[in-house]
Specification:
30% of the residues lie in helices and 21% in strands. It has 424 residues and is an alpha/beta fold. It has two domains: 6-13 and 242-405, no CATH class; 21-239, Rossmann fold, CATH 3.40.50. The protein has an eight-stranded mixed sheet with strand order 12-11-10-9-13-14-1-15. The radius of gyration is 22 Å and the shape is globular. The protein starts with 5 loop residues before the first strand and ends in a 19-residue tail after the last strand.
Length: 424
């Protein structure tokens, strides 16, 4: 089998990471008047999601410390909809894997799927919220503000989405996603978020922005009255930082790992240019991608392989790592059934390369455009085939790390890991 040679390149995105994340959290909380107005000994429910936010354990621990220094009594609760297999124990386990235990965070963790009604939106959506969180005197949400993988809007992933789908637990997530098919998820998130805010329980939220290196670049406490307008502004800012592949088209895109920690859809559809309903190349701003190959499932996805259906082929190590319940619960709740489908599965990388390379329409190895990334959140270091190398290096931010050389396989026919152990 003839294959193109590949080189390693690095995209030198602007580095916006904060030097002292804990100090940034402390400063954000210090200036939060909404917290100053809470009475001494007030209980504060701190909502945390399941995403792989950089240094989330430090951020939440510092927030808890600051709250306690004000004489408040914080506790953590999972604000993650149907994740963690939609069980209280599973969601607590997700927080534990993120380093969010009572010992490390300095606040107890309380997890329940029980909800209470919070009224009805003008569109007729029945809104619910976590009973434990709403029994507290106030709620503070901790969320990363970023583009949503599946839709476009002025509000996408962030505090409003956490107020809706996260705070709504499994019951709310099912209802809101169903309404999303009628109104669009962006409209549902906004309307439900407004209804939650009307309860007066939300003191505010700690908004986190990350740069293209997956480093914390901004931390800000947003009070409830300003949340809608301010989150729109923060989303516009972070969208301008979004990393992209440095080429216009790729024949074969290799993704080392998918997972809920990387994206709510396992792989970011706006990177691989797929959508959760199976459409190919729907995003005009993303490179056209011929075939997507997923090679593994990250352990922090806890067996949830949502998004596997967006791939055209997968390695059998991925299918062997799947746990059906969390995967099915997530897919059925969101309505993204195409994301549950198992693609063509191969025992080795050599097998799928042999099978798929001609399906791209490129008969000669030197014509084949291959890009190989760790995951869709990390587009810093990647391998590109010789045909894509000149286009990649034409970008002023891209540098060559390793000259072109043949792809290497081990005795089982799997690619030798060029990316996994390479220091960024």
């Amino acid at each position: 089998m003839e294959l193109p040679r590949c080189a390693l390149v690095r995209q030198n995105f602007p580095r916006r990471g904060l030097g002292d994340v804990r100090a940034a959290v402390r400063e954000a909380v210090r200036s939060a008047d909404a917290l100053n107005r809470l009475p001494a000994r007030a209980s504060v429910a701190v909502g945390v999601g399941s995403r792989g936010i950089a240094r989330i354990d430090e951020i939440v621990a510092e927030l808890a410390t600051c709250l306690k220094e004000r004489g408040l009594r914080p506790f953590l609760f999972p604000a993650m909809g149907s994740h963690g297999a939609a069980t209280a124990r599973g969601q607590a386990a997700v927080l534990e894997k993120l380093g969010l235990t009572e010992e490390r965070a300095g606040a107890p963790v309380r997890s329940s799927l029980a909800v209470v009604p919070l009224g009805r939106t003008p569109e007729g959506i029945d809104v619910v919220g976590d009973r434990l969180a709403l029994s507290a005197d106030a709620i503070v949400l901790v969320a990363r503000v970023k583009w949503h993988t599946d839709f476009e809007g002025k509000l996408e992933s962030g505090l409003f989405k956490m107020m809706a789908i996260g705070l709504g637990k499994f019951s709310g997530a099912q209802v809101y996603h169903a309404w999303g098919h009628r109104l669009g998820l962006a409209a549902v998130i906004r309307s439900v978020g407004r209804q939650v805010l009307s309860t007066g329980k939300i003191a505010g939220g700690l908004a986190i922005l990350e740069d293209a290196w997956h480093e914390v670049a901004h931390v800000e406490f947003v009070a409830a009255p300003e949340m809608e307008a301010r989150e729109e502004e923060l989303l516009e800012r972070v969208k301008s930082w979004m990393p992209r592949l440095p080429v216009d088209a790729v024949d074969l895109l290799l993704v080392d790992e998918i997972g809920k920690n990387w994206s709510g859809s396992g792989m970011d559809p706006k990177v691989i240019n797929r959508d959760i309903h199976g459409n190919v190349n729907p995003w005009p701003f993303a490179p056209r991608v011929g075939r997507v190959i997923a090679r593994g499932l990250h352990p922090l996805s806890y067996g949830n392989a949502i998004g596997i259906g967006m791939a055209d082929a997968v390695h059998q190590r991925l299918t062997r790592a799947i746990k059906r319940r969390p995967t099915y619960v997530n897919g059925l709740t969101s309505g993204a059934l195409a994301c549950l489908k198992i693609p063509a599965t191969f025992r080795s990388d050599r097998e799928w390369l042999e099978a798929l390379r001609r399906s791209t329409g490129k008969l000669n190895p030197e014509e084949l455009g291959i890009a190989w990334i760790r995951n869709t959140q990390d587009l810093t270091v990647m391998a590109v085939s010789e045909r894509l190398l000149p286009e990649s290096l034409a970008h002023p931010r891209v540098e060559l790390l390793r000259k072109v050389q043949p792809l290497e396989f081990d005795a089982e026919g799997n690619l030798r890991e060029w990316l996994r152990n390479l220091a960024v």
